[in-house]
Automatic annotation (TrEMBL):
Catalysed conversion reaction: a (3R)-hydroxyacyl-[ACP] + NADP(+) = a 3-oxoacyl-[ACP] + NADPH + H(+)
Annotated GO MF terms: 3-oxoacyl-[acyl-carrier-protein] reductase (NADPH) activity
Enzyme class: oxidoreductase
Keywords of this entry: NADP
Name the record gives this protein: 3-oxoacyl-[acyl-carrier-protein] reductase
Family to which the UniProt record says this protein belongs: Belongs to the short-chain dehydrogenases/reductases (SDR) family.
InterPro entries found in the cross-reference section: NAD(P)-bd_dom_sf (IPR036291), Sc_DH/Rdtase_CS (IPR020904), SDR (IPR050259), SDR_fam (IPR002347)
GO aspect biological process, one term: monocarboxylic acid metabolic process
EC code: 1.1.1.100
Recorded superkingdom: Eukaryota
Length: 281
């Protein structure tokens, strides 16, 4: 495979989960600009999905179709995959972007407050379903000797809203806390471990399938406005970011775009946080 071939997305199909959120939406536009058709996954935001389909199909030769699925269950994943293959064909690009918090107890919370059922549900939704969807998409990529798999391993910062709970609304104290997948974060053990597991998963996949023309990476965004995980952040917090402002979904999408178009980038976790952390974890 030549490097030139690796950059061309014309005629390729990307399946993006959580496509109606800020990052998923922006990524769909970024890949469509390269001529890549988009399988638009959504759970409940059908109107937003239809809006995105209209935007994507403005690009010449690009198709977009919406697919509703509840990815909190393995049956939902299987249905999504089967629907996409039946309507659009086998995905060449998979962006595992959907996820849930599963409730928040904070870094000083009591582990007893996270039931094993909550732990299992969070793992299934964040990691298990992403694993299954990747497992389903890989054989076709392997046969074609071309594939791109990207995980969204979100950073999550938070602060106390009151004595009893945390909120993912950000304030200046957020930076004094850790991040989920790397150091435990502020949500809870269920969320942190589900995101950390993604890293081990991508490392194994990257090593195993690199010689088959398949790359596997992750983007770890933090401090990104216009997303569900970051509502009403304070201006003071923005000033403390080394770059001096919050990020926007298009800037995360550009990282995914890099990982999809570059055949030499694999086995990497790219942190997009305005320079707050010096390197990946």
């Amino acid at each position: 495979m030549s490097t030139q071939d690796s950059k061309s997305l014309k005629g390729k199909l990307a399946l993006i989960t959580g496509c109606t959120g800020g990052i998923g939406y922006a990524t769909a536009i970024a890949l469509a600009r390269h001529g890549c058709s988009i399988a638009v996954h959504y759970n409940s935001a059908e109107a937003k999905a239809n809006e995105l389909i209209g935007e994507v199909e403005k690009f010449e030769g690009v198709k977009a179709v919406g697919f509703q699925a509840d990815l909190s269950s393995y049956d939902g994943v299987r249905k999504l995959y089967e629907d996409v293959v039946r309507v659009m064909g086998h995905p060449d690009v998979l962006f595992n972007n959907a996820g849930v918090l599963g409730g928040t107890i904070g870094p000083n919370g009591n582990i007893q407050d996270v039931s094993v059922e909550t732990f299992e549900n969070t793992w299934r939704t964040n990691t298990g379903t992403a694993y299954l969807l990747t497992q389903l998409c890989l054989p076709s990529m392997e046969q074609k000797k071309w594939g791109r798999i990207v995980f969204n391993s979100r950073y999550v910062f938070a602060h106390f809203d009151d004595r009893s709970s945390y909120s993912v609304k950000l304030n200046v104290n957020a930076f004094d806390r850790s991040v989920a997948a790397g150091t435990g974060g502020v949500v809870g053990p269920h969320y942190a471990s589900s995101k950390s597991a993604m890293h081990g998963l991508l490392h194994w996949i990257a090593n195993r399938y690199a010689k088959d023309g398949i790359t596997c990476n992750a983007v770890a965004p933090a401090l990104i406005v216009e997303t569900n995980m970051m509502a009403n952040p304070s201006e003071e917090l923005g000033k403390r970011i080394p770059i001096g402002r919050f990020g926007v979904p298009q800037e995360v999408a550009s990282v995914v775009e890099l990982l999809v178009t570059n055949a030499y980038m694999t086995n990497k976790i790219i942190v997009a946080d305005g320079g707050w952390t010096a390197s990946a974890f």
